Amino acid sequence: MAKTPKYSKIIRVCHATWGKLGGKTLPHYGLHNHFLEAVLVEAGYTVKTDIINWARCVESVKMMKHDMTMAWESEKLKKDFQFFSYGMKTPMNFYTKISSPLKNGSFEIMKEKRVAYVRETGGLDNFYKNESMFQSVAVNSVDQLFNMIEWDRIDAFIIDPMSFDDEISKKFPHLKGKIKALQPPIQENIISPMIYKKHPKKSEIEKAYENAYKKVVNRSFIQKLEKIHKVKIYR
User: What residues contact residue 93 under an 8 Å CB cut-off, 6+ apart?
Assistant: First the structure.
């Protein structure tokens, strides 16, 4: 007879619709939630997941309407949030039209260009520190990035390669072969679970998470995630 897990606590997490990383119709609500859910269930929690706007998700974790999310670690977010042991790594790049005269992603080349990014995106410290160099535009969804580049309202947008590939395949197939990533990346990031620093149960949740993390996160688990979500995970 199968052993019945004894869930005694509920954790509410939120994520945004973001390629294979998050979405209501994805397995386990996406790669980010699947990773976090697996560790938290091992830690003895029942996980309740909501897929909402990213900026709203960050604010909701800060207001403690949700307990946690997964985000790119950044100095900006570290002011208010505590990050736990990391899940995966990913680069962040400028993307532009193939027809664009922009040849690389150096800040010197991108200076004064119209650059869009999803509001409250973590892992963009290098960009945020130099944001005054650009005509930056903060948007609320990944879809807006693709629409704006297609309509020539911006010169480039910022996204990670995994999300770019999934988004263009599912929603913007007519743009395949028309948009390119500029090298080098703006920076390479670590994606980790985060919780508000003033959360009254932060220490308790962190201890439970870290203990479960040691049991769950191994090569076999990562390979399982890669198979289910059809992605390559970098560690």
Answer: 105, 158, 159, 160, 161, 164, 181, 182, 183, 185, 186
